[in-house]
Structure formats: structure tokens, C-alpha cells
Records
---
Amino acid sequence: MVMENYFKHLRSQIGHEEIIMPGVAGILFDETRTKILLEQRGDGEIGWSLVGGMQNLNESAMTSLQREFKEEANIDVAIKALIGIDTNFHHTFPNGDKAQIPMTLFEVEQTGGTLHADGDETTQLTYVPLSSHPKMYNPQHQLAVDQMIRQAPYGWYF
């Protein structure tokens, strides 16, 4: 996990204790709107996820997500819509750090760049059919994908 200086400082003070770390993730559909972009993680987590990450200090949720897409997938995105929010997910990272991660989920569209995994946090990028019920590395991302499969109206929250 790439960690901003703000979180590094907090961790130096409190160790692995649980903190609140706001997260963002994006749904990028293919041109048929039947597949979504997923990334295979290379940051110590095992499995697939939506493109996303932590909101840094002095960033909005939208600019954080745009930064994450540029860093991890080498593409520029525009925010199309707020899909939903999950507020009570608790996670322990591979290094033992604990966090409650309220995640804001957006639909995005590609506006530039060429899709390419960064080789660090992201080892592979692929569009996966929603009909295949993709399995995510954590329950929060699984919730987001399941909501998309169910065609839940935008604006959901948990």
C-alpha cells in the first residue's frame, strides 16, 4: 500500500491501531456497459479490486479517484456519477495496520491516456463481464460489484 505522509505520521504515533481512512473507487464500464475494469493487486493484497485507493489530505474524493486511475491504470477519467457509499468497512492490511474505510464509489469515463498497469500497486488490468460475478479481494469491493450486478439504483449507502 502506498501511504501518504499524513498516514505515515499517524502510524508513527499509534502503530497498527485502527484509524479512519477515507477510500474511493471507480466503476469504468467498457463500451458495451456489460464489463467493468478490474485490477489485480500487487501491493500485498491478494486478488482483484476496483481501481481506487485512499483519499489524501487536501484532496476531494473526486480528485483522489482521478489520481488513483492515473497512477494505477495510466488513464485520465472524468467523474460521471456518484454510485454509492459504504461507511462501515473494517480492514486489516497485510502489514497489520487496521482501518475503517468509508468508501465513495463513482462511475467514471476514460478521457485520455492508454490503459497500462503500473507494475507496482497494479500488476494487471482487465475488463470483466458483470455476468461472471467477479470475486473481489475484500467484501467492500464485492459489495460494490454485487450492487452493479443487481442494477441497484445509484445513490445507495450502507
Note: The longest strand covers residues 75-86.
---
Amino acid sequence: MSKILVVDDDPHIRELVGTLLRNSGFDVIEAPDGRGALSKMEDSPALAVVDIMMPNMDGCELMRNLRKYYENLPILLLTAKADLSSKVKGFELGADDYLTKPFEGDELILRVKALLRRYKIETPQSAAAGKLVIDKGSYSVSVDGVSEDIPMKEFELLFKLAGSPGRTFSRDSLIEDVWGYDFGGNERTLDVHIGRLRERFPPEKYGFRITTVRGLGYRLETVL
């Protein structure tokens, strides 16, 4: 039974959404604001229903934190803000879907179920780079069944690149996805980690290389 995190400062909305979800077979975790929501993440919710306007930590700041530390958590925005600019901002911050208040209970449940199905299908747990298999479940890499662990940031960077071989990722997108939007370092940190991956996995042995695309960023390519 999936756990759904409901984050809203209005107790009546939390009660309504919680009742709808429980009646549909879900477990419900509630929080009155973003700070409370983050403290509930140890309960491992499968999806978050998030309001925007909340005290202490609003929905926008909460989504930034969720996308930084829990990137595979589906997020459904549930808010009274129906204007296009609010929707655009919500999606840019990482929301997967958007439902405005007032809403129909059946539509809420349909959207929750659709997001859970989509994430089950779309969220990869492994990727391949040449001869290397990258397993996000165990955070290890392996060749011919022999596994080894590598530093976490190197793993996350390699997994990101290997997930879309041949695609060029901008430096900014790699830094934001691996280190977070509020990263206080500089681009040199990314270059250092790319250099370590190149040293650790030479193309002639592992069958892939990480190519620098001047002025843009990096991409992973298979070596034939």
C-alpha cells in the first residue's frame, strides 16, 4: 500500500485529501508546511501532494529540497493559484502535475494513480555505459558481474550521463542535478569529477568515453 504525503497548512484540505486517499486504499502522511514535510520523508512516501502558499517553508522551497534529495519522488501540486505563470514556475521547480482548488475528488485520485504508474515505468534503476553496468539500487558499478563502489557524486554524475548516452548535458544542469540548485562551489568541481571518472574508466577498457562539448557541457559516448 503506497504512502502519500499531503502537505497543506489548511487542516480542512488535509482532512479532505487524506480521506479521499484513504478511501482509495492509500496510507496518508500529513504535514502543515514544508519543514514538517521534510521531517516526514523518513517514512518513505511514494508521492507528495503539495500546496504552494504555506508558512515557515512554502511549496516552492519544499520542491527545491525534494528535487535535491529525493529526485525520484512524484510531486502533485494542489493549489488555488490557477494562473499560467504559477503553473510554469511549479513545473520548473520540479512538479510533475498540477491540480487547482477547488477540485473533484475523482480527478485527484486519477492523477495520483497516473503519476505512480508513470514513475514506476519511467524511473530507471540501472544504466549501461559500454561494458559498465551502473546500479542505482545498490549504488555500485560492475563489469562482468564484478562490482565496485565509487564516490557518491561520481556515481550520480556517471548515472546521469549514462542514462542518456549521446545527449549533451549543460554544465549548469549537471551541477544542479548532482550538487543541487544552491551549490556554493564553482564549475571547477564538476570538471574535477569528470576528470576522476575519465581516469577511473579509460575508454579502451570500459567501452565508453565522456566527451567535452566546448561551450556547452559533457556527453557520454559508446566506443565501438
Note: DSSP finds nine helices and twelve strands in the chain.
---
Amino acid sequence: MINIYIVGTAGSGKTSLTYTFNEWCHHQSYDSIAVNLDPGVTNLPYSPEIDVREWLSLEKVMKEYKLGPNGAQILSADLLALDAKILEERLNEYRADYVIFDTPGQLELFVFRSAGKVIIEQVGKKNSIVLFLIDPSLSTTPTNFVSQLMLSAITQFRLDVPIINILTKKDLIDKNALKMIMEWSEKPERLHDDLLVKHPSLYYQLSEGIMNVIKEMEAHTLLIPTSSENWDGMEDLYSTIQQIFYGGEDLEKK
């Protein structure tokens, strides 16, 4: 069983990719299930086999603790960490090859609070991986793209599991912009040069330092462009996961 945690900033496409990759796995006859970890979500395009809302409701937390939406989300993330054992027990009811976790909309609720680390440890760290989603609309300048990579690096540092960077919404971005982003991903020296053009002299040491951090933490890995509309990139995503865990060996289809 491989646990796949889909993480990213609000609006980056976490729920859409959860649905799409799960459907793609079913289409390929791979055994996968979807898990919703967001107690505040109202509508989902898929029916999760396990849904945290069964035992943890944002609305109930707001009423019980007399909190607003933001405070309730933070407390719910902490309560989710305390309920990690419940999640593990529910997962033990399944024997899926892939468990796809749709994490809360706000990145910090899963990455910066205890929820993400506790759940990953409880469910099984050795067979876990994070897909960090990069929104192309937030990545069209060198500084914005590096900011996304830094968030990915911090996520890997906090959760301490393998990470794959995913560029979402491939179908919604201009072809030239997509080409530029992929060049930054594949050629760090191009990204470095473009950073220097935008920030000469004053920011030279800063950009150098940031690039070194990204390289040292291995966050500057292959960026896989995907589309939840036409399923582009699902095969590449599957192959990359297989390469990390099984050296590229394919799973037996069910």
C-alpha cells in the first residue's frame, strides 16, 4: 500500500487531482481509494471511501468551541492529529495498492501544524509520498516560481518523506508560459539567470542562497505537468511513483 498525500496552496487543484488520479487508477485496473482529510469541505467531485467528516465536522467544532471559521479550521487540524488512530483503523479495513489523501485546503493546516506529521507517522511513513501541487498562475515569474519551490522544500523538510512537484492546470496556461516554467524546472541555471536579471546586485546573494537551499533539499526535482480535465500527466505521475517505490516495476492489475 502506497500512501499519497496531495498537498498545495489553496486553489492549486488538490481535490481535482485526487479525483482524477483515483479515476485514472480505476481505469487502469489498479486498486486505489480516496480519503478526504478536510473537515470543512462542502462539495467533493468524488465519493471518498474514508471521509474525516464522518467523525470531525468543522460546523460542529465552530458551535462547540464558539469559534469562527479560521479558528475552527486550526482546532480541527489539531483534533485530526488526535484522531490519527481512528484514521488508521479505518484504513485497515481496506487492502488498496494506493491510498490517495486529499488534504485540507489551507497548506499550513496539514504541513505546519501537527496533523500532517502525526498522520503520516501513524499510517506508515516508509510507504508515504507527497505530491506538492504548483499552481501555474502563481509561477509565471522567476520569483513566484522559486517561492513555490521553497514551499515544496519546506513541506519536504517538515514531513520528511519523498516529494514530487506537480504543475496543475496545464490546459489553462499559455503554451509559452508553460514552456518557460518547464525550462526553469529542467534547467536550474536558466532559472538562476532569470532571477539575476530581475534582481541584480542587491538580491544576488539572496537568490544564490535560495537556489542552494532548493538544490540541497532536492526539492528541485522533475516537475510533472498535469491536467485534471483531460488526464494529461497521469501516466507520468504513476510511473514516477512506481520508480520511487519499486524501481519502475509495474503493479499487477486487479
Note: The longest helix spans residues 142-159.
---
Amino acid sequence: MTAKKETATQQCKETIFLQYNGKEVCIDQVREAIKDNYDAVKKGSDPAEEIKIYLKPEDTKAYYVVNEDFAGEVDLSFE
């Protein structure tokens, strides 16, 4: 019975939203925006191995650090 529970959990699709001040943004969209931003700046010269994301809704920004040596930011597109 445990194996069935683990399999069902592994197949579960999760969507995380940040809600702030009556608006929300999907975290998956933020993650993709960060990856696109990083790729546009680095143009594939330094592949991302680790990304740390810091959400700061009061600034409507998501700040990020890639590979402990590159920092950037993207706007949170609240809808």
C-alpha cells in the first residue's frame, strides 16, 4: 500500500501561487521568467546549476542568484 501512495504523490501536479495585496502570480511563471532572463544575459556561457529565488512582493520583484556568482531580478507580473 505504501508504494501506491508514493507513486500517486510523485504523479501529483503542483501549482504554487504567491498572493499579495489582492493579486497573484504563479511561481512557475516566475521561475521561467528568471531562467529566460538569465539565459538572455549569459547567452549560454555559464549554465545554471543552482538558482536561488527571493520573492519580494512589496517591490513587485523576484531576485535571484545563479551558481552563487550571478545576481539578477525580474518583475513579478501580478494579475
Note: Residues 15-75 form one domain.
